[in-house]
Amino acid sequence: MILEVKNLSKQYSCGFFGLNKINAVNNVSFYIDDGEIFGLIGESGCGKTTITRMIMGLLKPTKGNIIFENENITRLNTKQWRPFRKKIQIVFQNPQMTFNPRRNLYFSCAEPIKIHGLSKDMNEKAMIRHMIERVGITEEQLKKFPHEISGGQAQRLSIARALSLKPRLLVCDEPTSMLDVSVQAHILKLIKEANEKYGVSMLFISHDLEVIQAMCSRIAVMKNGQIIETGYTNEIFNNPKHEYTKKLLSSYIKI
Amino acid sequence: MENLLEVKNLNVSFLMGKRKIHILKDVSFNIEKNEVLAVIGETGCGKSVTGSAILHLLPENAEVGGSIKYNGIDITNIHENEFRPYRGTEIAAVPQSPSTSLDPLMKVGKQVSECVTDKKYKYGEHKKQLKESIINIFSKLKLPRINEIYDDYPCELSGGMNQRILISMGIVTKPKLLIVDEPTKAIDWALRKEVIEVFQDLKKERRCAMLFITHDIAAAKCVADRIAVMYCGQIVEIGYTNDVLNNPKHPYTKGLIASMPSRGFHVMEGYMPSFADLPIGCRFEPRCSEKTDNCSKYEPQMINIKNGYVKCFRFKL
Which of B40, B189, B263 to mutate to test the interface with A (most CBs of A within 10 A)? Predict the structure, then answer.
């Protein structure tokens, strides 16, 4: 077990004096095994992204615990988080927004390597060359700026950047919802390859049932901040138990 | 059957500085009455440009060649004043991305009624009647709490609801041809089905012809009678929905369909060439797995098949 989430809750306060409380995530528990792709599905606004943000340490949970490799990472401060950042990486939904628009792509790609001091024993340039080769991007393209490349290229680069730190867990927050079908195939293949070759465990979030079915071994279905059903992908797709899951699966259009 | 819209050898080019960049090349298709034609293809292949060219919504620096005939009348390069009676009343559009197409500071009901009040001369409806008819459309699109929604702002509604508001703006004038641009883009899986159903109903009840621009192949399958596959500004294959999806003839169509997750997501090598330097022969040649010597030298011609055509050297009848 690489990651365990126990009774996680997040409550937002808003409105007059913050009196209006909204439960974005309510008592969520799940675990991810070593080398597994775990899928999280649900409609937009059901709290999927809030969960990823809490796992990444970008939001503090109201209640509950997140345990990564037998260490509780729920209430660490920024300094204590540092070593874990290397082990948990994320791929965001909108790739172009994750690069600094004022610096070229080389700078953005080298930044994590610099921050984590990985270039001591190896040449930084050689490292980056090695990492972009895997995703099929040339060094020429790294001289460009984020707005000059396509969404698919940007997403491949952000996957390469995330994998350059050799993480143990990769969180993919709807990595292909902004992309075309043909480009989507590229990205999914890359993600799957990272899982098979380097044994990176993954939390894969999507609302696309087709993608989830092709990628994940186990899935959890979310609604209104709660997990309503969890199990092996085949089981849930063939034999959904909860009403909402049935409704969700009925919207699956087969080609 | 009679052709409602006939597009023949449509060429669109943009003037960039001193250079001319050709986007659409020899695009030909026709839409019959009460027929839905889906145009599928990658981002940036010219799908939306086709829609805008029909609606005369291209920017100033665009040059349109070829012919677009609506009900037998050539509307390709007619003056803006002559085109105005068509736009909105005869040919209407449902633009893409509701988040940017709706005015955030105007109530949605007013935005929909604006489409009609502009054309008062034709309808002459009383304000109250207009509101009733709009609410009627809302209820047909299965929007919840229809009476209150009329006075809501776009930010108070969800993405799927906003998408349906856009659709009602398109159909409130009862057009004969609807040009729908990416209705299911960035929409949730559950809502996507609802939106698709709305279009299926529109086709059945209103008997309205549609040009359905999308890259969502599943949506195209549900709605369209025929599918046109576009690559790099050209239609490479057009035919009946079932024929195109189950028995694709052009290598690009084959690749596109094989790249879907349910078909095992096989990756197509390479990328679409830039419009600034296109290959001389077939535009798909650099990525094609079945290319011959002819492909890089000459452009393939149209080969007519049942209700459509294919542009490929490898294809034999």
Answer: B189
Task: Using an 8 Å CB-CB cutoff, list chain A residues near B42.
Answer: 180, 182-183
**Distance set, CA B240 to CA A136, A182, B215, B260, B316 (Å):** 36, 22, 17, 20, 18
Euclidean distance between CA atoms A139 and B274, whole angstroms:
19
Q: Is residue A122 part of a domain?
A: no
pLDDT digits 0-9 by tens, A221-245? 998 889 999 999 999 999 999 998 8
Structure tokens at A48: 């999927």
Chain A CB contacts of B273 under 8 Å are none
Q: Which residues of B touch A210 (CB under 8 A)?
A: 218, 260-262
Domains and CATH numbers, chain B: 3-90+175-311 (3.40.50.300)
In a domain, A148, yes or no: no
Q: How far is CA B216 from CA A128, B153, B222, in A?
A: 35, 28, 10
Determine, yes or no, domain membership for A244: yes
User: In angstroms, what separates the C-alpha of B134 from chain A's closest C-alpha?
Assistant: 28
For residue A94, count other CB atoms closer than 10 A to its CB. 14
Distance between B113 CA and the closest CA of chain A, angstroms: 30
Q: pTM of the entire structure?
A: 0.82
At B243-284, the pLDDT tens digits run 999 999 999 999 888 888 777 778 887 777 888 888 888 888
A162 found inside a domain: no
Distance of CA B132 to the CA centre of its chain: 29
Q: Pick from B188, B222, B265: which is nearest to A188 by CB? A: B265
B165 — contact with chain A (CB < 8 Å)? Answer: no
Q: How far is A95 from chain B (nearest CA, A)?
A: 15
Q: Which residues of B touch A252 (CB under 8 A)?
A: 189
Please name the residue of chain B whose CA is at the shortest distance from the CA of residue A174.
B186
- Enter the tokens of residue A74: 């729920």
